[in-house]
Specification:
Helix content: 40-55%
Largest sheet: 8 strands, mixed
Bound molecules: ligand BES, zinc ion
Shape: globular
Strand content: 15-25%
Number of strands: 31
Distance between the termini: 16 Å
């Protein structure tokens, strides 16, 4: 940092604001370098504040103040003070008053992409978390909720479309000029972070949706001109989301119009501004020859997520930013449920757990670990994390499991009823769960406060004579930064006992009601659950559907796992049993590679997979997941210390190769029989078939690179949709074969004008799993198509390299770490948010073997000694090193 360390903000210091802002009227004259904002605020003393006579301290950054007046009287400069981050009005009336200000700003120079900026010539805003203060002075905190009216004015040629939150009121020309205006009014009070405005030359797709109560809502998707043919899927997704929220949660939309605007320069995925969602265009634009199945699935899920925020986030918002998971964890839970209902629930659950293990578990195990509701932060933007989002969603899911679906729904209704229009807290949310169920969630609340992933150990003992089965469960939670001592968690475990015939036994535990979906609750450090009337030896199936986000260690023998893999009625645990076996195989292979021994064919595992693959009742997407080994992050996470990522990679590849050999006939059959005929559609069955086909191709290539390369290259040449193209390229980029660079070149030559496909090209290049990858990635920084201004381009090249290419990133000489540090240092000057996020890729360095750990630490230190350094990057790097 320049001078001193940036301050830390603590949850325990929360105080209600001394003032509230009831209404806001903005008059914005858009201009690339001198946008003028006139703002009129109706300010009242906050009856809930204990502070009397407080000066009014407004937040503001990168603004030029032109004038300020109270109740129409212009203030002399002695009555107020301006700092780089605030405007303080020393004395204010003790009654309601009007504050008028005029400020100026330069969207063109806004490289942080926070506040008002230009994305490829389009004016747009991003105000969460603290961007509104870069538009005008304000009480920029979520517990200040105001009614906004906005008048936008711009050159008609430069910005023929003018949008803001709420409902459109009037529009027209500004007489005698080439300018025009539009007025928008949002009837719902909202915090400033939900404010948005857009101005530019945009094309639009329109449709409508009639809500359950008969209100007709106009739907619009705005995109850059020429991209109109890529909006249809996003539009369909809006309509399915609206319909789903009505049936699943009884929630209707509340304005006359709902708009989505797609822009190409965006720090995040998308933003839920009231009535005017702004999206990274990667999550809007889709047609078969430019978007993959995964893109289609992501678009549907993210459109849903932002739409669902209208109730969980907008109508009920957060009191302060510590409560972020109140809206994000809950809304991720809602979008997961939506996707489960739209597609396969079993597959969705497996994919979500894979993500959790690859992203959240490492976070929880490293120096950046923090509770789902953090207790302190330096820069709130650093807390939009896998823990707040994905673990936050798991915590909501556990409450649903504990309450049961019906009671959970009543608790949600109560929450919407009780807190509509308010800025709420996690305590208030959980109180609704308690009040609707009569259940105490006091101990459960620790899930919000204690960081780290609980480890649960299970031992089972069947007594043939007494016909009892004793299941002993113990829990352990390791210390995490700032939390040396931990208390036991309240862990809901969905459970079954599988009998020798492969069917679930009837469960009977003395004193416990386990009718319906059986769930046992572990609250103690150790507890034995005794099941009665167990006539034959059962195989316990624990944590079904991944009912709790824990690491489970069982005493199950390989043959029990193979049995569950083939017969468990819970499809998640079928998959999980396979993953547990595979993790063991990779672990073994690591030991053998270290001591130079050979790795045998995993016969029993292959046989079990073969049996699964031949079951044609199973969903092809599920089969593709059965064929996919645990990720390298997952395996490294299990090892916890002294990880050599290159060795993990080699071991996993060896197992893939042996599996490919063992399943050769089956894989070839899959390759031949899963070709999808007819026009492309992203439906679950055809996308599932493509996923299975590509999983098979990957294993074929792992066991026989030459054959795999030939199949993949032919597949690439004959592909008629982007899913097949990328499927082929993803296999080729993992191989050291001549077809790899040939295909990459052809891809860029054919798609170099489509920025989203150029992003895919950079991402593929970043993933070549070879120690020389850092060199290749560094060279690509000088590629004519690389851009330091585009977050998507940076994430494609650098983000993919650091998170999806363990071999390259962890190159033994530290070249990967140095590359990342250099990029972070340079990017920190223009876009600290994205720089800090990339710096987060060092999060697991402490678990590396000594050589790499030292090199990574050195790279982190080189960032920390840079001056000046943003708060964002400073916080991530200093916490990483601590
Ligand atoms: N509210 C966030 C967007 C956001 C995050 C704005 C951080 C400012 C700072 C939005 O609802 C969101 O969560 N978006 C996710 C995608 C979503 C599907 C999880 C994103 O942008 O990654
Ligand atoms: Zn969100």
């Amino acid at each position: 940092m320049d001078t001193e360390k940036p301050p830390t903000i603590h949850l325990r210091n929360y105080k209600p604001p001394a003032h509230l802002i009831e209404t806001v009227s903005l008059d914005v004259k858009l201009h690339a370098t001198d946008t003028r904002v006139r703002s009129t605020l109706a300010i009242v003393p906050n009856p809930k504040s204990s502070i009397k006579n407080a000066p009014l301290v407004l937040d503001g950054e990168n603004l030029t103040l032109h004038s300020v007046a109270i109740d129409g009287d212009r203030l002399p400069s002695s009555s107020y003070a301006v700092t780089p981050t605030s405007l303080t009005i020393k004395a204010t009336p003790r009654k309601p008053f009007r504050l008028d200000m005029e400020t100026g700003l330069s969207p063109k120079d806004n490289t942080e992409l926070s506040g008002l900026y230009l994305s490829n010539g389009i004016y747009c805003t991003q105000c969460e978390a603290e961007g509104f203060r870069r538009i005008t002075y304000f009480l920029d905190r979520p517990d200040v909720m105001s009614r906004f009216t906005v008048r936008l004015e711009a050159d008609r040629a430069e910005a023929p479309v003018l949008l803001a939150n709420g409902n459109p009121k009037t529009e027209g020309d500004v007489p005698g000029t080439n300018r025009h205006f539009a007025v928008w009014d949002d009837p719902f009070p909202k915090p400033a972070y939900l404010f948005a405005m857009v101005g530019g030359d945009l094309a639009v797709a329109t449709d409508s949706f009639t809500t359950r109560s008969g209100r007709k809502v106009e739907l619009r998707v705005y995109v850059e001109p020429g991209k109109e043919d890529r909006c249809a899927w996003a539009m369909e997704s809006i309509k399915s989301s609206m319909a789903w929220d009505e049936t699943a949660f009884g929630r209707e939309y509340d304005l006359d119009i709902f708009m989505v605007v797609a822009v190409s320069m965006f720090n995040m995925g998308a933003m839920e501004n009231k009535g005017l969602n702004v999206f990274n265009d990667k999550y809007v634009l889709a047609k078969p020859d430019s978007a993959t199945d995964l893109d289609y699935i992501n678009i549907e899920a993210i459109i849903a997520h932002e739409y669902f925020h209208n109730w969980t986030g907008n109508r009920i918002t957060c009191r302060d930013w510590f409560q972020l998971c109140l809206k994000e964890g809950l809304t991720v839970f809602r979008d997961q449920e939506f996707s489960s209902d739209m597609r396969s629930r079993a597959v969705k659950r497996i994919q979500d757990v894979r993500t959790l293990r690859a992203q959240q578990f490492p976070e929880d195990a490293g120096p950046l670990a923090h509770p789902v509701r953090p207790a302190s932060y330096i820069e709130i933007n650093n807390f939009y994390t896998a823990t707040v989002y994905e673990k936050g969603a798991e915590v909501v899911r556990m409450m649903k499991t504990l309450l049961g679906a019906e009671t959970f729904r009543r608790a949600m209704d109560l929450y919407f009823d009780r807190h509509d229009g308010e800025a709420a807290t996690i305590e208030q949310f959980v109180a609704c769960m308690e009040d609707a169920s009569g259940k105490s969630l006091k101990q459960f609340f620790r899930w919000y406060e204690q960081s780290g992933t609980p480890e649960v150990t299970m031992r089972g003992k069947w007594n043939a004579k007494a016909k009892t089965f004793d299941l002993t469960l113990s829990q352990k939670l390791a210390p995490t930064p700032g939390q040396a001592k931990k208390e036991p968690m309240h862990i809901p475990l969905a459970i079954g006992l599988v009998g020798p015939n492969g069917h679930d036994m009837q469960l009977d535990i003395a004193g416990t009601d386990i009718s319906g979906e059986p769930v046992i609750e572990l609250k103690e450090k150790t507890k034995t659950f005794r099941f009665r009337n167990v006539g034959s030896r059962p195989v316990p199936s624990i944590n079904r559907g991944f009912s709790a986000p824990i690491k489970l260690r069982t005493d199950l023998a390989q043959k029990d796992l193979l049995f569950l893999m083939g017969s468990d009625s819970d499809s998640f645990n079928r998959w999980e049993a396979g993953q547990t076996i595979a993790r063991g195989l990779i672990g073994d292979a690591i030991k053998k590679l270290k001591s130079g021994r050979g790795i045998a064919e995993p016969k029993a595992y292959a046989a079990a997979l073969r049996q699964t693959l031949s079951d044609d009742r199973l969903d092809p997407q599920f089969l593709s997941l059965m064929l996919t080994l645990p990720t390298e992050q997952d395996v490294a996470g299990e090892m916890a210390r002294n990880v050599d990522p290159a060795l993990v990679h080699r071991a996993r590849e060896k197992i893939r190769a042996r599996l490919g050999e063992a399943l050769d006939g089956d894989l070839t059959r899959i390759w031949r029989t899963t070709k999808v005929a007819g026009a492309y559609a992203p439906d679950p069955d055809s996308s599932g078939k493509r996923a299975l086909r590509h999983a098979a191709l990957g294993l074929i290539a792992a066991s026989d690179a030459k054959r795999g390369a030939k199949l993949a290259f032919d597949h690439f040449l004959s592909a008629t949709n982007m899913t097949d193209t990328i499927g082929a390229l993803s296999v080729l980029t993992q191989l050291d074969v001549p077809q790899r660079d040939e295909a990459l070149e052809q891809f860029l030559a054919a798609n170099g004008k489509d920025h989203l496909l150029v992003d895919k090209w950079f991402a593929l290049n970043a993933q070549l799993p070879f120690p020389e990858a850092p060199r290749r990635v560094r060279d690509l920084l000088d590629h004519p198509q690389f851009s330091w201004q585009s977050p998507n381009r940076l994430r494609s090249l650098i983000g993919s390299f650091a998170t999806l290419n363990p071999v390259g990133f962890h190159a033994e000489d530290g070249a990967g770490y140095r590359l990342l540090a250099d990029v972070v240092i340079r990017l920190d000057r223009s876009n600290p948010q994205v720089a800090a996020r990339l710096a987060g890729s060092f999060k697991s360095y402490k678990s590396l073997e000594a050589g790499r750990r030292t090199l990574a630490r050195k790279a982190l230190k080189s960032i920390l000694k840079t001056e000046p350094l943003s708060r964002d990057t400073y916080e991530i790097v200093s916490r990483s090193i601590a």
